[in-house]
Design goal:
about 240 residues; MPG_sf; 3-methyladenine DNA Glycosylase, Chain A; hydrolase; single chain; Formyl_transferase-like_C_sf
């Protein structure tokens, strides 16, 4: 596959990201992020996101602009990558200085652009413990696992503009129902109560932490949002099951 080949799906432009963080976080669900490595498009459907605002204690940007955090103060659509839990974590700047959306989890995606060879490369990028093969359902289940599988690194992409020939997010026509709940890993006293985490309801078991797990109650622990346009898949579907 030619690394400069132009995929046919519509990719998201900077205008998509130049909107409120929560809106961007919701509408990224169901899109497919693709990274071209050695001629292979490594792809994952985005299934979990979190929104962050500069005025929150939980946001990195609340600590101010710095060389490592400058991407959050750049125009909307710039990748902000940082080191998290021993790996890389992917975010995008959105409307307003210091506001961003974190890509928390994905699901490996195979279609006419991303082949089985792409999937094999993703599995090789992120083997399980002791060198075993990681289960597909867990391959991109977490922000650092997603970056590892896709080959995304701080060194290569932090504060660099996306290049649709190498890094892009495609709208494949999916309009999922969405679960809204509180974010993960926020220490007490740092706005941990804010419900700025969004999960693709159809992929809830495969995200970082299933918001529909036993003991969780709708209306108390989470809210189910019906998509305002279309519920279900309307475009390309993955061959993975």
């Amino acid at each position: 596959m030619d690394s400069l080949a132009e995929p046919q799906h519509k990719h998201l432009d900077d205008a998509f990201f130049d909107r409120d963080a929560q809106l961007v976080a919701r509408e990224l669900l169901g899109t497919v992020i693709r990274h071209c490595v050695d001629g292979l498009w490594l792809s994952a459907r985005i299934i979990e996101t979190e929104a962050y605002y500069i005025h929150e204690k939980a946001s990195h940007s609340s600590l101010g602009n710095s060389p490592s955090r400058r991407a959050m103060f750049m125009p909307a659509g710039h990748p902000y990558l940082y080191y998290s839990r021993g790996g890389d974590s992917l975010n995008f700047s959105v409307q307003g200085d210091g506001n961003a959306v974190c890509i928390k989890a994905g699901y490996p995606w195979v279609d006419t652009i991303s082949s089985e060879a792409s999937l094999e490369r993703m599995l090789a990028n992120s083997p399980a413990a002791a060198g075993g093969v990681r289960a597909l359902t867990r391959l991109c289940s977490g922000q650092s696992l997603l970056c590892k599988a896709l080959g995304l690194t701080v060194v290569e992409w932090n504060a660099k503009p996306m290049d649709p020939r190498r890094l892009r997010i495609d709208d494949i026509g999916a309009r999922p129902d969405i679960i809204q709940t509180t974010r993960l890993g926020i220490p007490p006293g740092r706005d941990e109560h804010l419900p700025y985490r969004f999960v693709d309801a159809g992929f809830a078991p495969h995200c970082t932490r299933n918001p529909l797990r036993r003991g969780q109650r709708e209306g108390e622990d989470y809210v189910l949002l019906q998509h305002s346009k279309i519920s279900g898949l309307c475009g390309a579907e993955s061959t993975l099951t």
